[in-house]
Amino acid sequence: MSPGARTETGRFRTVADAATTVAILATCVVIVWSILARRPNPRSSDVRLPSEPQSLEGAHTRGNPRARIAIIEYSEFQCPYCGSFQREVWPAIDKTYVSSGQVLFAFRHFPLEQIHHLALTASEAAECAGRQGRFWEMHALLFAENGRLEKPDLYARATELGLNPGQFVKCLDGEATNRVREDIATGKKLLVSSTPTFFIGRLELDGRVRITGRIKGFQPLSEFQAAIDSALKTH
How many domains does the chain have? Predict the structure, then answer.
């Protein structure tokens, strides 16, 4: 074999070896990815539930205060998954459970300030609307367009709801911050780390909630149905 031929053969082997190595690495990546993809989403059993009943003091609620079951949502207005829950799952929960008087629904703020820089102010805007009796109306408007949460957008929503502009502007200038942070503190005690996070449990006679289940993230209606059924069976 001539020197030139040997050189070309060596180059061919080098290229072939490199291609084989790339193919092996690609196969490994596919295998690892397929294993990770099959891992289930976190469920209630993955996190220890609180042993003590949880107070609803300070939370915004809707539904029957004497219902047997309560759902507590930790959420924020800039979170896309929270918006998806509000638009796609909440209407069915409201119609089937809340409006029928079976479930009391409670909302608590949990703005993820490090990744959603507008979330805290949006939560404050909802609280400020709540001071004028329009929390749930502001809640609906913020989730309807949760890509528009700059202060001018919040002022526009307040005008749309007919809120007193002077009171709203003053409140949004920091008066509601502590109220939002109180919710954040209760969420951290329950090991909430992402939104939305839901706690489902029995509503006791003193108005507190005995937690029996936890749902993390944007999940289908069937997850809530299963958690509600489980809470009803728990004595």
Answer: 2
What integer best gives the mean pLDDT of the chain? 85
* Omega of the bond leading into 196 within 30 degrees of 0 (cis): yes
* Residue 45 near residue 214, CB atoms below 8 Å: no
Q: How far is residue 70 CA from its own chain's centroid?
A: 17
Q: At 180, is the secondary structure helix, strand, or coil?
A: helix
**CA–CA distance, 137 with 130 (Å, rounded to integer):** 9
Mean pLDDT of 99-111: 97
132 shares a domain with 119: yes
Mean pLDDT of 61-86: 97
Residues linked to residue 70 through DSSP beta bridges, in sequence order: 104, 201
Alpha-carbon span 107 to 72, nearest angstrom: 6
CA distance 149 to 122: 6
CB 102: neighbour CB atoms within 10 A? 15
Same domain, 11 and 51: no
Same domain flag for 3 and 69? no
Residues 106 and 83 in one domain: yes
Does 43 have pLDDT greater than 60? no
Element (H, E) at 190: none
Q: Are residues 13 and 71 in the same domain?
A: no
User: What stretch of H or E contains 113?
Assistant: none
Q: Which domain does 19 fall in, by range? A: 1-39
Residues 11 and 96 in one domain: no
